């Protein structure tokens, strides 16, 4: 008898669970997209931390740009599913006054780096598991109650849109980013 192991091609139980609708391994969300009218936006959110590569990040570093902030962790199946869409939109807007920053809420740097390598994510992520510094900074504006959650910040650093749950299509996020870019500063 000859047996061949295909561990590299083995199904991912967490992703399979998400795709089948069981939603095991992450905080379920409704996938709602909420755009916040300019007049209803709160104060700019100042946030920061240390990236998976050990570099310090402060939102002041991206002042005047539209920013996409994605809250995620490696074991989150919908985070895996949406990684390609986020990277696609990041590549589309790279060099156009748009910054992307992930906020990893559960993993240490090595796990976050391995995820980025596996899923081709090239923008940095803050490692927020020990301090929750970034998550707390957004708590007053938009509590992060589900993972993944993606926020679009306007050029002033205010929350302009929120996607709770996985990004179904790069076009949705692209539209939100375009809308924020088109606003007067």
Helix and strand content put the structural class at alpha/beta
Count of domain modules: 1
* CATH architectural name: 3-Layer(aba) Sandwich
What is the string of helix and strand elements? HEEEEHEHEHEEH
Q: Could you estimate the helical fraction of the residues in percent?
A: 25-40%
Number of helices: 5
Describe this structure in words.
This protein has 185 residues and is an alpha/beta fold. The protein has a single domain, classed as Glutaredoxin (3-Layer(aba) Sandwich), CATH 3.40.30.10. 30% of the residues lie in helices and 20% in strands. It is built from 5 helices and 8 strands. The strands form 2 sheets. A 6-stranded mixed β-sheet has the order 1-8-7-4-5-6, covered by helices on one side. Helix 1 (13-19) crosses helix 2 (77-93) and helix 2 (77-93) packs across helix 5 (170-182). The longest helix has 17 residues, at 77-93. The termini are far apart.
């Amino acid at each position: 008898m000859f047996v061949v192991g295909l561990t590299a091609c083995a199904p991912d139980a967490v992703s399979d669970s998400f795709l089948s609708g069981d939603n095991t391994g992450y905080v379920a969300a409704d996938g709602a997209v909420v755009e916040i009218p300019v007049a209803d936006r709160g104060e700019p959110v100042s946030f920061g931390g240390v990236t998976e590569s050990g570099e310090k990040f402060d939102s002041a570093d991206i002042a005047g740009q539209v920013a996409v902030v994605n809250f995620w962790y490696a074991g989150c199946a919908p985070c895996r599913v949406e990684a390609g869409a986020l990277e696609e939109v990041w590549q589309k807007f790279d060099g156009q006054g748009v910054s992307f920053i992930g906020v990893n809420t559960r993993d240490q740097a090595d796990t976050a780096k391995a995820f980025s390598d596996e899923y081709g994510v090239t923008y940095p992520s803050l490692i927020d598991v020990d301090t929750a510094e970034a998550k707390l900074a957004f708590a007053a504006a938009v509590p992060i109650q589900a993972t993944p959650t993606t926020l679009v910040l306007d050029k002033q650093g205010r929350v302009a849109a929120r996607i709770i749950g996985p990004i179904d299509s790069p076009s949705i996020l692209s539209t939100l980013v375009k809308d924020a870019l088109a606003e007067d500063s």
